[in-house]
Amino acid sequence: MLKKKRRIGVSIDMTPMVDVAFLLLIFFMTTTQFQPPEKEKIDLPKSSSEAKSPESEIITIAVTKAPTVKVVYKQRGPDGLSEISLDVNPLTLQTDLGPALQRARAANPSARVVVKMDKGAEYGVIADMVAGLQMANATRFNVQTNLKEGAGILAPATPH
Amino acid sequence: MGAVDTPERGGKKKKGGLSGRRPKRRVGVRIDMTPMVDVAFLLLIFFMVTTVFRTPKALEINLPPKDAKVDVAVSKTFTMRILEDGRLYWRRAEEPWNRTTTDKLKDVLKPFEGQNELILVVKIDRKSPFENMVNALDELHAAKLSRFSITPLEDKEKQEVEGL
What we know:
The structure holds two protein chains of two kinds.
Chain A (H helix, E strand, L loop, with lengths): L14 H17 L14 E2 L10 E6 L5 E9 L2 E9 L4 H15 L4 E6 L5 H13 L4 E8 L13
Parallel strand pairs in A: 1-6, 2-5, 5-6
Antiparallel strand pairs in A: 2-3, 3-4
Chain B lengths: L2 E2 L24 E2 L3 H17 L6 E6 L14 E6 L4 E6 L5 E4 L3 H5 L9 E6 L5 H13 L5 E5 L2 H8 L2
Parallel strand pairs in B: 4-7, 7-8
Antiparallel strand pairs in B: 1-2, 4-5, 5-6
């Protein structure tokens, strides 16, 4: 006698779900800040390197096209972590970068050095920088780049 | 899911001055929003899945110790000189110079791919853009050539190739 009842089309009101979904979507769309605006624009060169640039525990050497050179690092002070930025004269980089880097490394000995340099800046700047890096014993550093178009996961398969 | 106004029924527009033309009461019409929501979610999920954030990448460079000196046989060297204007001169050992441009670096290195006994001496003009150095590093890496040095081009060396 047990006959299965035929299913009845049940209509569920999706409106609240959709409302919430759109609300969240709009919330995130409006609150998302893409790249934090930079005071000095640095246009990174492109490479096919896929290694991620370290983001914490770093000492940044920022070089703009002009060129201006800045050593930026974080130091733990009485009022928490503060960002310190030292300007270095690009003309005396060979002698001045070393001491600036040594100060930065004294504040944070395990920090890695990341060079953030505009692609149009002169090669001479980084050539001089090498002397400073060697002086501060930071012989291992990262050069920040952007991924080249058509590289990475979009790279064409190369026959071997 | 939504209420939309209906137009005057059937689009019949009576323009004759009808005295009994009273605005009809609006009728709530339900429109099925499901397809629209489907499409919206489909797009949302598609973009969520395919978006690749542009995170900065890095080339790692290991510098030699300060006073490292290595003697190398001239026959194993491969010299490249990159000038400010993008000209590139290259030669193996002491063969005559070949002239090309930096954007053709890939083709220059192709025949030497993976020849690890080669020692590349890359000299870059101090005034040339930093991009040239990154490109050179990148192409060397792509060609699996790991023994190289990158140093600034000296005036004497520049004069040697400039007239070619």
